[in-house]
Specification:
This protein is of the alpha/beta class. The protein contains eight helices and five strands; from the N terminus they run H-H-H-H-E-H-H-E-E-E-H-E-H. Strands 2-1-3-4-5 form a five-stranded mixed sheet, covered by helices on one side. It binds FE2/S2 (inorganic) cluster.
């Protein structure tokens, strides 16, 4: 369920900074006339980054006005995507995927470790404002499940131990290593490649492809 900041936390106004105004205009210019509303997501993302990671009502209305959209259309978008926050979040927004692939691969242990390490439940923020914990649906990294997203980074192939290390590193002010936590290269199989295993040179030789001499290095040059 979307959490919306109470009236007491809502600022009266919002406006893009000079840099974000220029960025917003550049996004809008990418779309044909009459389709400027397509820029709603990048503009909401800009507004959220400018406002410490959340979108007050004034920012939604500002973006609606900027794009000539009815405010309700922008509210619909903002309440649909979990990447958009309608209430303040901590400095580190920990979003744990509990969808089917992650759940089958151990998301429960990741959730439990987050709860125990941070001392908060889902949808809550630590008293020092450093961490917010959220449960999210599939974030598109199923092949390296289970995973969580913290701010802009993905942490994949998690278990309780690696989750604890990542959170402890952030608590100590460090920068944890993002990506696979078990040394997997991108999304290759766990045991390494099982096909297309030849490197380009070997594959070229096998196919009878000769390397062309570089300009000035061929015979008679
Ligand atoms: S199910 Fe977790 S990333 Fe897809």
């Amino acid at each position: 369920m979307t959490t919306i900041a109470p009236a007491s936390q809502q600022p009266d106004t919002f406006a893009f900074s000079a840099d974000n105004l220029a960025a917003a205009k550049a996004f809008v210019a990418k779309y044909p006339d009459a389709y400027q509303a397509s820029a709603v997501l990048p503009l909401l993302d800009l507004a959220q980054r400018q406002n410490d990671g959340w979108l007050p009502r004034a920012a939604l209305e500002y973006v609606a006005d900027f794009l000539g959209m009815p405010p309700i259309r922008v509210f619909e978008v903002a309440t649909f995507y979990t990447m958009l926050n309608l209430a303040p979040v901590g400095r580190h927004h920990v979003q744990v995927c509990t969808n089917i692939s992650c759940w089958l691969r151990g998301a429960d242990a990741v959730v439990e470790t987050c709860r125990n390490t941070l001392g908060i439940g889902m949808g809550e923020t630590t008293d020092d404002g450093q961490f917010t914990l959220s449960e999210v649906e599939c974030l598109g990294a199923c092949v390296n499940a289970p995973m969580m997203q913290i701010n802009d980074d993905y942490y994949e192939d998690l278990d309780a131990g690696s989750t604890q290390v990542i959170l402890a590193t952030l608590q100590d002010g460090g920068v944890p290593k993002s990506g696979s936590q078990i040394g997997r290269k991108t999304c290759e199989p766990l045991g390494g490649l099982t096909s297309l295993t030849d490197d380009a040179k070997t594959a070229g030789k096998a196919a009878g492809i000769k390397k062309k001499p570089r300009a000035g290095k061929g015979k008679g040059a």
